[in-house]
């Protein structure tokens, strides 16, 4: 039974594991590399595992997250690929609620030149426009108003995550007697607080 075994060995010789840039020696050496050396090797190694398409997208061929983004490791930590690539290649750190957004709209692309730094708001606006994220599958508010760009109010929720509100519903709520009473009360308290802060320096 030498046939199947030969085939297996043949496949193995072409596999990613045997690519020199990903060899065991290289990965061992990486442990002692300086930060700059490691970053350079990491980027080259990632690119070697991508297929570059006609748009210049580096399409990742490795592991994916449940929602379709590239996943890889950096210094033994498992990370979202395009987000890490943006930070490593551009030297820009991303805060917890900052995003690496794709200008090409290809989730598996990790070409740093196709990525830009967005706030939760930018990212959400981008998602609304491209109707991409999970929430976007909901096209109408619970009252049946469509989430068009004009009718969608995007804001950061208390958690810092972006959230959507229906403007038509907001207008309706704003004109209800209960809402107006609450708004008056909030305003009264704000005035009181302002007065108080003037008295005590
Ligand atoms: Zn791209
Ligand atoms: Zn609504």
Could you write a compact summary of the structure shown?
It is built from 7 helices and 8 strands, in the order αααββββαββαββαα. The site of one zinc ion (ZN) has 6 residues, from loops.
Q: Could you walk me through the main structural features you see in this protein, from its secondary elements to its overall organization?
A:
This protein is of the alpha+beta class. It is 43% helix and 16% strand. The strands form four sheets. A two-stranded antiparallel sheet has the order 1-2. Strands 3-4 form a two-stranded antiparallel ribbon. It starts with a helix and ends with a helix. Bound molecules: zinc ion (2 copies). One zinc ion binds at residues 57, 104, 106, 109, 111, 114.
Radius of gyration: 25 Å
Fraction in helix: 40-55%
Shape: elongated
* Tally of helical segments: 7
Largest sheet, strands/sense/barrel? 2 strands, antiparallel
DSSP strand content:
15-25%
Quick check: average pLDDT?
A: 82
Label the structural class: alpha+beta
Counted up, domains total: 2
Unreliable runs:
1-13
Distinct small-molecule ligands in the complex: zinc ion
**Multimeric state:** single chain
End-to-end Cα distance, whole Å, is 89 Å
Order of helices and strands: HHHEEEEHEEHEEHH
């Amino acid at each position: 039974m030498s046939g199947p075994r030969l085939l297996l060995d043949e496949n193995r010789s072409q596999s990613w594991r045997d690519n020199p840039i990903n060899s065991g020696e290289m990965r061992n050496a990486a442990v002692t590399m300086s930060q700059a050396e490691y970053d350079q090797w990491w980027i080259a190694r990632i690119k070697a595992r991508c297929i570059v398409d006609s748009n210049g997208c580096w399409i990742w061929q490795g592991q994916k997250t449940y929602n379709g983004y590239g996943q890889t490791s950096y210094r033994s930590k498992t990370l979202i690929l395009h987000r890490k690539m943006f930070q490593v290649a551009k030297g820009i750190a991303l805060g917890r609620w900052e995003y690496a957004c794709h200008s090409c709209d290809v989730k598996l692309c990790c070409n740093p030149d196709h990525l830009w730094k967005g706030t939760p708001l930018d990212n959400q606006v981008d998602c609304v426009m491209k109707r991409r994220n999970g929430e976007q599958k909901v096209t109408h508010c619970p009252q049946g108003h469509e989430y068009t760009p004009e009718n969608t109010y995007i804001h950061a929720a208390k958690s810092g995550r972006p959230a959507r509100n229906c403007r038509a519903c907001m207008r309706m709520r704003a004109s209800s007697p209960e809402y107006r009473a609450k708004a008056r009360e909030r305003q009264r308290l704000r005035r009181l607080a302002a007065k108080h802060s003037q008295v005590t320096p």
